[in-house]
Amino acid sequence: MTSKTLDAFLQENLEDLKARGLYNEIDPLEGANGPVITIKGKKLVNLSSNNYLGLATDERLKKVAIEAVKEYGVGAGAVRTINGTLDLHVKLEEKLAQFKGTEAAIAYQSGFNCNMAAISAVMDKNDAILSDELNHASIIDGCRLSKAKIIRFNHSDMEDLRAKAKEAKESGQYNKIMIITDGVFSMDGDVCKLPEIVEIAEEFDMMTYVDDAHGSGVLGKGKGTVKHFGLQDKVDFQMGTLSKAIGVVGGYVAGTQNLIDWLKVRSRPFLFSTSLTPADVTACTEALDLLMNSTELQDKMWENSAYLKENLEKLGFDIGKSETPITPVIIGEEQATQDFSKRLYEEGVYAKSIVFPTVPRGTGRVRNMPSAAHTKEMLDQAIAAYEKVGKELGII
Ligand code: PMP
Q: Entry's PROSITE patterns (predicted)?
């Protein structure tokens, strides 16, 4: 294929995506990603960020990040194993281990590459991975990269998991077997059934891996899903992101010293991609300090999410069965969901629609992420917009 034919091929496919309403137009924010954002000069109450605790724009984090830039500069200068490990990285990893209650931790440049790195550094073609069908794309890619046999189980269906675990074990085909799950599922806000997963893993002698991108900073008084269930000693890989509740960027695995030492010599983004910047790691360490010393931000986030859920439900919306601040408003049909989100935008509320193929057909939803940074007035504005648009489009 020449570059000319490639271009024609791409154009045809892009047009097809646009015709089917599957092309995502990106509107840049003019300013910070806070509780209120500005797009094309329009101010909008922001219900679409993963910035659960409002830390992305926290003054304390900004201050330490600026100081780190003054002292260390803007870049780490190399990959971790050459000379891109600053004392700041070590401090962050020690703090992460303390936060998660493990012997050690390793930080990566993002949650996405953390999953790709950690899964593929431990699992290989002689192994099997039992993976929840709704696990995040980065888990799926990490599993594929490892070349292990991927066995998907129905979402949070423990009978299905047990049957597949038994079959995999009894087949005698695999060296190692891992069960991997999101801690909190981001489309519905449901929490994985970790006690049962751990029990099945123990029964069949398997490893466990929890991606707690949406649980850390949120559940277990901020320490995450594993802590929420009191299972810190039973989960081998506690993976998390530094980009959501922590408000910055990065990913990590917390676990035993041997696991972390292994990841430091075998995981490719650690070996071959430049490390997190001084500002990032310093802000993350500060965020962890804040979370370990007070639950004030979590309390506010839970209060705001209860307020939003209660009022949306009172208006007659179907908000699913979320156990976390993630608040889906289920609209159903794809076009109706997109229309709903567009009308909210016109009313000054930014809440993204999520439709097939991200969620099953007919379960389109507008997803709301209330945070500690929202004021009651902002939430009231959003609730009023929901009422107006819901009545206008015949949803309530
Ligand atoms: N895992 C899950 C469950 C996620 O939701 C995300 C973010 N969408 C990631 C991993 C990737 O994290 P990051 O954005 O930090 O790369």
A: AA_TRANSFER_CLASS_2 (PS00599)
pTM of the model: 0.96
Q: Which fold has domain 19-48+295-393?
A: Aspartate Aminotransferase, domain 1 (3.90.1150)
What are the residue ranges spanned by the domains of the chain? 19-48+295-393, 59-293
**Could you report the per-residue pLDDT of 206-218, keeping only the tens digit for each?**
999 999 999 999 9
ipTM over 0.95: yes
Any atom of ligand 1 within 6 Å of the Cβ of 112: yes
Measured in angstroms, how far is the CA atom of residue 241 from the centroid of ligand 1?
6
How many angstroms is it from 192 CA to the middle of ligand 1? 16
What are 178's strand-pairing partners? 129, 207
The radius of gyration of the chain from alpha carbons, rounded to an integer in Å, stands at: 22
User: Which residues does the annotation mark as catalytic?
Assistant: 186, 214, 244
The residue whose two tokens read 């804040």 is: 290
Q: Does ligand 1 come within 6 angstroms of the Cβ of 243?
A: yes
Displacement of CA 20 from its chain's centroid (Å): 27
